Amino acid sequence: MVHADASNFAQGVTKEEAYEQVLLQAEGLFDGQRNWVCNLANTASLLWHAYKSLPSPSSQVNWAGFYTLDPQKTAKPQLILGPFQGKVACQTIAFGRGVCGAAASTQTTQLVPDVEKFPGHIACDGDSKSEIVVPIIVGEGDARKVVAIIDIDCADLNGFDEVDKKYLEQLSDLLTRSCDW
Ligand code: SME
């Protein structure tokens, strides 16, 4: 049964351990539930509470959530705001625009130590100094398609490293196979 305790993370654990718990809890929550709104919402909660339990810079995460592929037909494909934790954010982002748009159009993780140095960065919140964006991809070969992105922002510079990349990419794979996109 789903219980709010899933969002409780012990203080003093390593970032690796916190991510392992996120993955484990997420897998449990997705059991018998394939709706992406529901699963992304619970995942945003797990990530937010995991970061808050860690030392700086992870504790300085100020936005954790998702943009999904906008089903509305536009000239260029675009992302639309999905479930998240943090302050209100930009509603739509064209593929190729900013960090999120770059992850969507290139289908690769964007690890940005200083957002000011990223060409075209979208400053939804001036507090955000660094960012990691991981695409969620379905399909193989030519049919590969970005259906959503994981976006985590941090109020400190250099908020993310290869550990975040490794585990968020694992989380992305889990979401690819656990939801009906
Ligand atoms: N900074 C992002 C926009 C999204 S928000 O930060 C939530 C970007 O440049 O893609």
UniProtKB/TrEMBL annotation:
Cited SUPFAM superfamilies: GAF domain-like (SSF55781)
MF-aspect GO terms: L-methionine-(R)-S-oxide reductase activity
Pfam families hit by this protein: GAF_2
Top-level taxon of origin: Eukaryota
Entry's family note: Belongs to the free Met sulfoxide reductase family.
GO CC term (a single one): cytosol
Cross-referenced Gene3D superfamilies: 3.30.450.40
Species of provenance: Xylaria multiplex
Protein name, as recorded: GAF domain-containing protein
Domain GAF as annotated: residue spans: 65-175
